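Structure (tokenized):
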């Protein structure tokens, strides 16, 4: 995809009417994913601090989407003050620690500015990051769907669709592409506590696409696999280490353990911007921990005894040994290990 896309042409290319990130050349508007699916509301961002707040506050979420939003945040910052490069970089980089796409996008934007400090060129770089992500998702959709046979029943976790990316989605993109080939019989999607990205966002996207889906509690997965034939677990990623260990939404590791126990294949779908070869293994990946209130309260209403503490890691690491295939836009890494990851990413 070489020409830069408009919001409307991007949706047409993604065959979607969901626009989580709208850049009109002037303004950045982010779909507030905290109020979906019952309300469609956009947040206008005026500078890097607004974008960082939207990322930290989960208005925009999903590894590729926060990278794209951060790239536009850099454009807003430098339009206001051409000397704010490092300040804007740090503000945005601090907004969430685990998804490496965020830092990757910021480093790419910083490199572009240092090479050519021109605002029009800088803006075009952000739009390119956005468009490339969509093109990569369409490619991964094709590659991942080729692994899925007819009549497949799959499980997915969190939200990895158009809302989490530049369009089409990563894991959900593979499901969409496989569905277009009539290979998906049913998708079980987890609730994904505590933010309910599965119940609120994935269920919404599946319903809009007319893909048969069923919601399942996170804790019901091992039971489901013990009673029904599931062909694949298909998930996205927030950071993949050099050896293939994969950080993704909390609960992914438990899904992978249950999948191994029941002979269910496990697929990770992520663009090259999600790989971090500076991390040798999963232990090097920083795991975001969020406030205890996300567990002790539900929408501001206490659900645990007052004053009770909670441990709230929002990602975990699935060891490479539990992964059958990682799909990225450059190819499929079967039974990932250091050599195979390096060979596909070089
Ligand atoms: O906390 P979130 O909602 O940003 O977490 C999102 C996930 O864990 C996704 O699986 C991951 O970012 C891949 S999205 C294409």
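Design, position by position:
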């Amino acid at each position: 995809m070489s020409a830069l896309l408009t919001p409307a042409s991007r949706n047409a290319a993604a065959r979607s009417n969901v626009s989580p990130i709208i850049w009109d050349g002037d303004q950045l508007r982010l779909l507030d994913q905290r109020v979906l699916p019952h309300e469609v509301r956009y947040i206008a961002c005026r500078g890097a601090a607004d974008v960082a707040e939207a990322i930290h506050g989960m208005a925009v979420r999903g590894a590729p989407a926060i990278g794209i939003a951060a790239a536009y945040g850099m454009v807003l910052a430098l339009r206001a003050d051409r000397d704010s490069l490092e300040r804007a970089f740090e503000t945005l980089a601090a907004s969430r620690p685990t998804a490496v796409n965020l830092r990757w996008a910021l480093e790419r934007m910083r490199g572009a500015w240092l090479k050519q400090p021109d605002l029009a060129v800088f803006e075009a770089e952000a739009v390119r990051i956005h468009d490339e992500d969509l093109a990569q998702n369409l490619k991964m959709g094709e590659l991942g769907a080729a692994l899925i046979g007819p009549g497949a029943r799959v499980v997915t976790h969190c939200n990895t669709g158009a809302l989490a990316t530049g369009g089409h989605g990563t894991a959900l993109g593979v499901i969409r592409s496989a569905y277009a080939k009539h290979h998906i019989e049913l998708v079980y999607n987890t609730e994904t506590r505590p933010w309910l990205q599965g119940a609120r966002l994935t269920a919404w996207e599946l319903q809009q696409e007319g893909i048969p889906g069923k919601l399942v509690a996170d804790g019901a997965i091992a039971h489901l696999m013990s009673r029904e034939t599931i062909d694949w677990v298909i998930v996205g990623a927030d950071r993949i280490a050099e050896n293939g260990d994969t950080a993704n939404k909390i609960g992914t590791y438990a899904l992978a353990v249950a999948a191994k126990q029941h002979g269910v294949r496990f697929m990770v779908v992520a663009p090259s911007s999600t790989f971090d070869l500076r991390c040798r293994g999963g232990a090097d990946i920083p795991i975001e921990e969020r406030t205890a209130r996300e567990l002790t309260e539900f929408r501001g209403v206490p659900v645990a005894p007052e004053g009770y503490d909670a441990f709230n890691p929002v990602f975990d690491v699935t060891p490479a040994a539990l992964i059958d295939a990682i799909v990225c836009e450059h190819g499929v890494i079967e039974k990932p290990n250091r050599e195979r990851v390096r060979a596909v990413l070089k």
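Reviewer-requested clarification: The chain has two domains: 7-135, 138-345. The pocket of MRU is lined by residues 61-64, 99, 158, 160, 164-165, 170, 197, 236-238, 248-249, 314 (CB under 6 Å).
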